[in-house]
# Entry
Amino acid sequence: MRGKFITLEGGEGTGKSTQAKLLATRLKDSDRAVVATREPGGAAGAEEIRALLVSGATGRWSAMTEALLHCAARRDHLDNTVLPALERGDWVLSDRFADSTMAYQGYGHELGRDVVSRLHDLAVGGFTPALTLIFDLPVEVGLRRAGVRVAGGKGIGSPVEDRYERMDPAFHRRLRDGFLDIARRDSGRCAVIDADQSIDAVHRAVIEAVNARLGAGL
Ligand code: TMP
# Structure
């Protein structure tokens, strides 16, 4: 496979979607074919599953059901978007991937590392990103930013996608610690990016990580 798979991860309001767009532009400017995608979603079936996950009552799913839905969406996304793009030699940027299931369902909902790892092995197997950027931000700053974003709407025609933002602050703290733990355990794949800076400064840190880890020469 000539293409590279890069994932962007983090809690609410870290600015990773903005950074995904900036990185995609930078890669395209260097004449690479880029597919920018997201989870949950990124393929027709997975987007239908997304609608079940991101709206409605915070407690509408058990942690296990929620993890299974995320894994089902991921398999559909891999089969229909990510793997075909990598086979073509494209660079694939995914706004969230498997570390979100570990952080949100494994740590946030306290399903545990072991259960999430087993689900992951079944649904995804040994496939891993070449690089994972973990955007880190104090919980209060992220939720404040996400609140502004939700009030402003999250895209034309989309229902309000704030189910996770509405979960309690303790959930969001477990989530942040979870992402940092994931990064510590897999430091060869993961780079932690300080997201509590200007958009430009975060973008520079992203480019530095992509160059250092993947030799991208951007
Ligand atoms: P987004 O707001 O980044 O588009 O992501 C939608 C929500 O889905 C976000 O609050 C995080 C959550 N999520 C999980 O809980 N587990 C997962 O595996 C993924 C991919 C997302």
Summary: The chain has a mean pLDDT of 93. Residues 38-40, 53-54, 70, 96, 100-101, 104-105, 164 surround thymidine-5'-phosphate (CB under 6 Å). The CA atoms of residues 64 and 152 lie 31 Å apart.
